[in-house]
Amino acid sequence: QVQLVESGGGLGQAGGSLRLSCAASGRTFSTYAMGWFRQAPGKERELVAAISRRGLSAYYADSVKGRFTISRYNAENTLYLQMNRLKPEDTAVYYCAAKFDCYSDRYYSEGYRYDYWGQGTQVTVSS
């Protein structure tokens, strides 16, 4: 079992930056591949970025590539999402998710593969 708590959301301006954090507790953080998802009103949940358990590989959605950076600090059980050059279309509730994986070092892009989810943090970008 792992508990995930997101923080760092809020109101940002177009062109600005925000950094989201996801604090994990419970089982060993380094045995989980992690992901950031988002869901805007009236839209389906989508993957924003994913990272392998050791942080050696990462994936980004085309819509955020070059603007967002996913990272993790296993020693402090924390996942980050640095969001730069924000756009109004980045407005959504952002969720971190964990996928147990102690055998490989890959990322996972499908939401159904994730075992645990945080409660979400709202990000609103004004134009």
Account of the 3D structure:
This protein is mainly β. It has no helices and eleven strands. Strands 2, 4, 5, 6, 9, 10 and 11 form a seven-stranded mixed beta sheet that branches. A four-stranded antiparallel beta sheet has the order 1-3-8-7, with no helix packed on it. The model has no long low-confidence stretch (mean pLDDT 96).
List the main descriptive attributes of the protein structure presented here.
127 residues, mainly beta, 51% strand, 4-stranded antiparallel β-sheet
Describe the secondary structure blueprint for this structure.
Layout: E1 2-7, E2 10-13, E3 18-26, E4 32-39, E5 46-51, E6 58-60, E7 68-73, E8 78-83, E9 92-100, E10 116-117, E11 121-126
Parallel strand pairs: 2-11
Antiparallel strand pairs: 1-3, 3-8, 4-5, 4-9, 5-6, 7-8, 9-10, 9-11
| Residues in β-strands, percent | over 45%
The 3D shape can be described as: globular
Q: Based on DSSP secondary structure assignment, what is the total number of beta strands?
A: 11
Rg calculated over all Cα atoms: 13 Å
Work out the helix count: 0
The stretches of 5 or more residues where confidence is low (pLDDT under 50) are: none
Summarize the structure.
With 127 residues, this protein is mainly β. It has strands at 2-7, 10-13, 18-26, 32-39, 46-51, 58-60, 68-73, 78-83, 92-100, 116-117, 121-126. It contains no helices and eleven strands.
